[in-house]
Amino acid sequence: MGGSCFKRLLFGASLGCIQLGPQKLFESLVPLAEIEAEGMEAIVPDAILDVALPAVATGVRQKRGAPRPRRRLMADFKTIHKGTVSYKQRTSEQSGAVRAREAKVWPAYVAHARKIDSKLGAPGSKQIEQRLRSYTETRGVVFGAYGEASVDVHDIISTAADAIAKRQWRQAGACSLTEYRGFAIRNLRRRMGLTIVQEMARHTISRMPLINVPRQAVEDEMARRRRQRSTNHHAWAPTPEHFDFYAYQQIPIATMA
Question: What is the pTM of this model?
Answer without folding.
Answer: 0.76
